[in-house]
Design brief:
Strand order of the largest sheet: 1-3-2
CATH topology: Arc Repressor Mutant, subunit A
Strand content: 15-25%
Largest sheet: 3 strands, antiparallel
Number of strands: 3
Number of domains: 1
CATH class: Mainly Alpha
Order of helices and strands: HHEHHEEH
CATH architecture: Orthogonal Bundle
Helix content: 55-70%
Shape: globular
Distance between the termini: 31 Å
């Protein structure tokens, strides 16, 4: 297999979890910190952090530091198009 197809498969695999889709839907409107995402989704911070790490490692999210908070934002605009397609 060529590297490009492997990379594409890894990207899609990162999107293939319901919690990660919910996180991305939240981040479509604005950047958020881990605690805010956890509150909105009623999940533990450690669980949210794990999912955010996966999305960030695939280049889907970016991280900026603001004061004492780590703010996650959608970095790759293709993911918004993918979410739109999934919503039909």
């Amino acid at each position: 297999m060529d590297q490009e197809r492997i990379s594409q498969a890894e990207y899609l695999k990162a999107l293939g979890h319901p919690t990660r889709i919910r996180i991305l839907e939240l981040l479509e409107a604005q950047g958020r910190c881990v605690s805010n995402i956890g509150e909105k989704l009623d999940l533990k911070q450690s669980n949210i952090s794990q999912h955010l790490g996966i999305l960030r490692s695939r280049g889907i999210l970016s991280l900026t530091r603001e004061g004492g908070h780590s703010i996650y934002c959608i970095k790759d605009p293709r993911v918004v198009k993918i979410l739109d397609l999934l919503r039909g």
